[in-house]
Design a protein that fits this description.
Elements (H helix, E strand, L loop, with lengths): L8 H7 L32 E5 L4 H12 L3 E6 L3 H13 L4 E5 L5 H15 L4 E4 L15 H22 L8 E5 L3 H4 L5 H21 L5 E5 L9 H5 L24 H8 L10 E2 L10
Parallel strand pairs: 1-2, 1-4, 2-3, 4-5, 5-6, 6-7
Helix pairs in contact: 2-3, 2-9, 4-5, 5-7
Length: 291
């Protein structure tokens, strides 16, 4: 497993134009709301979960909510150690055991190391939340470099394959995989061509993996957030001029908060959704989509 203070920078720099993305939540003037909004009810008691991109944003909100519901939580992130420590402390304040793992999930060796560390520490894996992602805005398809295209697909969809492959031998009947897709998969995004393409791949992967695993009692679902206030967009995922009115084009007229999305991940991770697989939930501010 990667040391929480170590990142395979050679791998990152080889494939990324902007290796510092998705950015630090601690640097934002307006802080996202990630704190759980209701008392826990033990819905994940005794469970072990991996949450990728768990240092900030939706990942942090999900990790802390899982902790409140009784899970032991492994928090996977790239290199934002300050944010990760805040998430760890918040999970531990809920009484949870926590494992931090820093490194690049686009590297299959790192993914295997992460799962191995979880099994070594806790002896089981019940929930895999594939939430980590990155996006790079471009006005024209010709502006997307081969390096950026590779980097976006490695982080957003290849990592899900790598983690599912590493986790599969340890997932028993009753386990759940929850992937993060996006509203952009359904309605498109003219300046997020490569990002939106990965989200379409994630939805197809979710439905296909569900069919592949459902007979073994393993459920696979996804969440497709709309515009959510996380570091992803203000730290380079959107042009700066788009941030003043970010999310105001939704029917609700505002961006969502991470703690408005995390309950969808909890629902799909626990037995409340025991008759659901291959499905997508849409916390998106009222945008009507097909699927």
């Amino acid at each position: 497993m990667a040391d929480p203070q170590h990142v395979d920078t050679a791998f990152v720099e080889q494939t990324s134009e902007e290796p510092r993305m998705p950015g630090h939540e601690s640097a934002l003037d307006r802080k996202p709301q990630w704190q759980p909004r209701y008392p826990g009810s033990g819905r994940l008691t005794g469970k072990v979960a991996i949450v990728t991109g768990g240092d900030s944003g939706i990942g942090r909100a999900t990790a802390v909510l899982f902790a409140r519901e009784g899970a032991k939580v492994a928090i996977a992130y790239l290199e934002e150690h300050d944010d990760a420590r805040i998430t760890r402390d918040a999970c531990e304040a809920e009484g949870a055991e926590v494992l931090l793992s820093a490194g690049d999930l686009g590297d299959p060796d790192h993914c295997r190391g992460l799962v191995d560390a979880v099994i070594e520490k806790w002896g089981r894996l019940d929930v895999l939340v594939n939430n980590a992602g990155e996006q790079h805005p471009d006005e024209d398809v010709t502006e997307i470099t081969a390096e950026q295209l590779q980097r976006t697909f490695q982080t957003n969809i290849f990592s899900m394959f790598y983690l599912a492959q590493a986790a599969r031998p340890h997932l028993q009947s009753g386990a759940a995989i929850v992937n993060c897709t996006s509203v952009t998969m359904y309605k498109g995004a003219p300046i997020l061509l490569d990002y939106s393409a990965t989200k379409g791949a994630i939805t197809a992967f979710t439905r296909s993996l569900s069919e592949n695993l459902v007979a073994d009692g393993i459920r696979v679902n996804a969440v497709a957030p709309g515009p959510i206030w996380t570091p992803l967009n203000p730290c380079g995922g959107q042009p700066p001029e788009n941030m003043d009115d970010f999310g105001e084009d939704t029917p609700m007229g505002r961006p969502g908060e991470p703690n408005e999305v995390a309950p969808a991940f909890l629902f799909l991770a626990c037995d409340d959704s025991s008759y659901m697989s291959g499905q997508v939930l849409h916390p998106n501010g009222g945008i009507v989509v097909n699927g």
